[in-house]
Amino acid sequence: MSRFFDIVSKPARNLGTMNAPSTTPAALERRSRLIKLDSNENPFGPSPRVVDAMRAVLSAANFYPDDDCSQLRQGLATHHGVPVEQVLVTAGSTGMLSLLCQTLLAPGLNAVTSERSFIVYSMAVQAAGGRLVEAPMRAGEDSFDLDAILAAIDPNTRIVFLPNPNNPTGTMLDATVVGRFLAQVPGHVVVVLDEAYYEFALGFAALRRVAYPNSLEYLRQGASVVVLRTFSKAHGLAALRVGYGLGPAELLGYCARMRNTFSVSSVAQAAALEAISDSEHIQRVVENNILQSRVLAQGLSALGYRVVPTSANFLFCDLGEDAAAVAARLQDEGVAVRPLRSWGAPSCIRVMIGTPEQNHAFLQAARTIAGSGSRGSQATPAITSAV
Ligand SMILES: Cc1ncc(COP(=O)(O)O)c(C=O)c1O
To answer: Is any ligand 1 atom within 6 A of the Cβ of residue 114?
Structure first.
């Protein structure tokens, strides 16, 4: 077929090539002017305290970072009340996902998740040579079917991914169902409790008087779980690429051996260490998220769209029509949202909950499109990125 097809590894061959520039400088420039509600980031950015902490280490950029992230690891261990050996810091929580896949999977082995879950699982599993099995969701609902996930586990399964809340649906599994599920998972399977939106989920759970799982308690009780957390969302540090896993010391030890050397920069380590204790910033971000989730949900419902109650920092919204076309029209109006065809939901979008001003602008744009009666016509295709 081509010069290298026969000599690259099977996972690389299956994933295909992807090194052409995905965008142009002009498109990037246009994108920088959009109100970005398409990647579940933090609209407020990092806190001033964290920015100061980053500044303080910039002039030492000539030195390699501490490969072990010792101070940050210790800080996280203290913060969570776990031994330091149960903490592994990685380049974003997707870094931890890849390490888990490389450590636990190989050709012939598989990982299980639900359909319509976080899209990076599939890439990480395939890159490790494994196969991702997607169990069906609950019929007619937007939530996971944990019995279907259990039924999909076989002797070759090594990982189950449970994003909680899930991206892109924003739905949350409560403590009772997760506890019941974990009790039934066979011993040869590691359950990855992906809690990228933990801070937002806690806020919504308290409001609704439901119990968000205490995942660290499962770990303390010896369950085969790895809890993923990130500084990309509530802490506003997505560009720095820093996240971590909390899991059994032995398993994390194997994962640590597979890590790329110096993969977490010193700037990221300093920022994350400061961010752990910056509860004021988190509180402000979470409060805005709760208040603004109502504003957005009401605005979208008033336009006749179906909005799924969220436990995260974004809304899953069924427009009942071609969402890619509507997203392209929104982009023409200056707002980026995520159309969800790749998740098997061609009539749905995912929209991040932004600042009051951003949400106002988004709703104005949505009303303009709804009012024009020509949703989707003649629009330029939306510029999108991977997640
Ligand atoms: C469910 C889920 N897990 C993990 C991540 C990745 O976060 P990070 O930036 O830490 O790699 C995301 C980001 O969108 C996510 O939605």
So the answer is: no
